[in-house]
Amino acid sequence: MNVRTRSSAIIATICLVASLALTAASADEPAAPRQAAKVALKNVATAKNPSAGAAGPGGTVWIAERAGTVRVLTGQGLGEPVLDISGETTTDGERGLLGIAFDKKFAHFYISYTNLEGTSTVDEFAVRHGKIRPGTRRTVLTQTQPYANHNGGDIKFGPDGYLYIAFGDGGSGGDPHGNGQNLDTLLGKLLRIDPRGGKPYAIPSDNPFVEDPKAKDEIWAYGLRNPWRFSFDAGTGDLLIGDVGQSAWEEIDWAPADSKGGENYGWSQMEGNHPFRDGTEPANHVPPVHEYDRTGLGCSVTGGFVYRGKAIPALKGQYVFSDYCDGTVRSLQIENGEVTGVHDLGVNGGEVVSFVQGGKGELYVLDIGGSVSRIDPA
Questions:
Q1: Using CA atoms, how far apart are residues 316 and 158, in angstroms rounded to an integer?
Q2: Are 334 and 341 in contact (CB under 8 A)?
Q3: pTM of the prediction?
Q4: Kind and range of the H or E element at 13?
Q5: What is the pLDDT of residues 48-66, one digit of tens each?
Q6: How far is CA 248 from each of CA 7, 245, 350, rounded to the nearest angstrom?
Q7: Burial class (CB in 10 A: 0-12, 13-18, 19+), 195
Q8: What is the mean pLDDT of the segment spanning 2-28?
Q9: What angle do CA 73, 52, 321 make, to 5 degrees?
């Protein structure tokens, strides 16, 4: 487990501020942050409350709509639904169809949604010749939710081939059940499972808590409030999580590709780098790689992806993210787990609820109001 101390994060921030204040840098000083890449948003489709997306077979991009439909993006926009579970899900609060993912071989398709009772559910379908086979559907994992918010719901396959599932702390406000720091619940956690290794799934033998009788074996990382969107860097394998704050701080968490898991991101003792309601910082707290406060228009971080496409060379290697309330698309330069530059990319995606990474690394921005836009060079 890689644990970054708060003191190292504070020192890095001071150094960054100091370097920005200088008009010129000498040869022995850190390189200044690059200028922001010049980008534009091109509307490529209109959906009904798009909520998530995934790269699909044959270079396609699949888009999930919150009420329960999945459609494929084409040159003419979105096609007819290839899957419709709208009779099985609810959109109360922050619920609905919240995540979709393919395994590496595009042999199976996974959906993450809240059912009519509000239970978080991950289902699997077999895929043949690029098409879902409805008759193969099976439920992989379920988790009851005490409230209609902070359900999380994002799903991604990691570089290791395992399925990662993000669940929020269960909702309400202030984590009233203490789920973030409780290892005996899947709430407030990032999970790691092998969906094809057993029925209904298997636990990877190297998960960090498999030898702890007081912890759930599925847990990969904990101390999360609402990890609404997370991703893996397609170039390095590093993990990045956009964890939505309570009332003051939004945070982005980072773990290197060689992490053994078990990171404690602090909630609900901490909100970002700050004690929450007189909380005590856990000894193993892993501080965020980046945080921002709510003194501006931001209110809910929307995690994105490290850009690995070819269309915008100046953006390569930077982590692109936004905020649901602010809508400004931004990027982070991250070197060895430290932020060395923060950029406003000069475009606004609206009520940004998610990003999608296509098969060639290009990024799409989803506005819950309906717009599906691609990030293009300006």
A1: 20
A2: no
A3: 0.91
A4: helix 6-21
A5: 999 999 999 999 999 999 9
A6: 21, 7, 21
A7: buried
A8: 37
A9: 105
